[in-house]
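User: My instructor asked us to take a sequence, write out its structure as tokens, and then describe one feature of it. I'm not sure where to start. Here is the sequence I was given:
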Amino acid sequence: MTKLPDRTAAGAAPNWLGRSLTVEVGPVAHGGHCVARYEGRVVFVRHALPGETAVIEITEDGGGSFCRADAVQILQPSAHRVEPPCPQAGPGRCGGCDFQHVSVAEQRSLKAAVVHEQLLRLAGLDRPVDVKPLGAGGLGWRRRIRFAVDSRGRLGLRVHRSHRIIELAACPLGAPGVGDAAALATPWPGISEVEVAVDDLGEAAVLAYREAGTNRRTGGGAEGNRWTRGRAAKPKLIAEQVSGPARLTYEVNDRTFRTQPGGFWQTHPQAAAEFTATMMSAVRAEPGERVLDLYAGSGLFTAALALAVGESGAVCGLEADRSAVSDAAENLSDLPWAEVRHGWVTAATARQTASELGGADIVVLDPPRTGAGRDVMTALLDIRPRVIVYVACDPAALARDVRTALDAGWQLGDISAFDAFPMTHHVECIATLSPPRLADPPAVGDR
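Assistant: Let's start with the prediction itself. The structure tokens for your sequence are:
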């Protein structure tokens, strides 16, 4: 173990970048790492497991109260440690996965611990959860991957928190047609990123992304994409479809959905149906009810809600992506009492849309990783639906938004969690929020 220099000034932390330390690894934390402590500082360690003794190498040190590290040697391994199925998984290699060194069952336990910790720390709720599997195993599920392109025009994925690209011949997480896509064996000069997506019919679409203002002769790729975190904005990329169908096709509950190849759709093949069923069980929609569907995408939840409330009801969605709104119009064409409008979800647009509906009995929202935020959540609570169902891809954002609801007197009901992204730290949650209970009516003699 390398001896570290003493602190150079009172209260100043030494720079440990590149140093090796031996640590006892503590609990899992949000973000795909575990927490260790050394000489009063927190170290976020990747490629480790709780309870292990490991030699770690410091990969980032900003001089504050914490730094980041990779576990490069495991002295006392956890019983849950396994050999990573991909040779590119590990310290300094591909950053696409966080937990390939962990058994699939234990991955779900770690994610459950993270959700519990985030709810406890950010929302003040001691609510243990179970993370449910989607299908068996942890490989071959990812139906969309966006690959980076290196300076030689070869496809790969970036190292964690780095712009360095690891060339890949295949990706075991990718579904057939994605993880073994022919695009992986093809050079892509002048291209910055290549996206491959496959649908329920097995049809694959390939999109190439180049920087605005570049062409195949002037180049792009990694050498033309040297943006640095915190110092420059990422350049704008323009997509061009190279091959595949104009629409990708998905089937959910005997209903067909079509999306443009670059549009959002749940990447795990079982996620769309499972999330829809869980959401519908939570809302308990009745004929004639009015529904506000925020961040509606191409209409997956909108359609299910519309079928439940029927022609006497109404469902209105909001979505900022114009291509998704266009897809939703096609997907909802047989449900004229349902629509997805183009617009950013803000407190003002949420209130306005609910007002145009004549109020909202049900609110469903599926925000991006940053969450809905206090302003939007406050607006939704003010609308006073009988239930809010929140679909979250980030447990910290969920916990912050739940805290806003709790502060307004609302209650967190059921919360379900799903392992929709095996081998990564990501976890999907679906939470139900109920409004404050009305005060008991006064006794007859007090009226």
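For the description part of your assignment, you could build on this observation: The two ends are 78 Å apart (CA to CA). Try explaining in your own words what that tells you about the chain.
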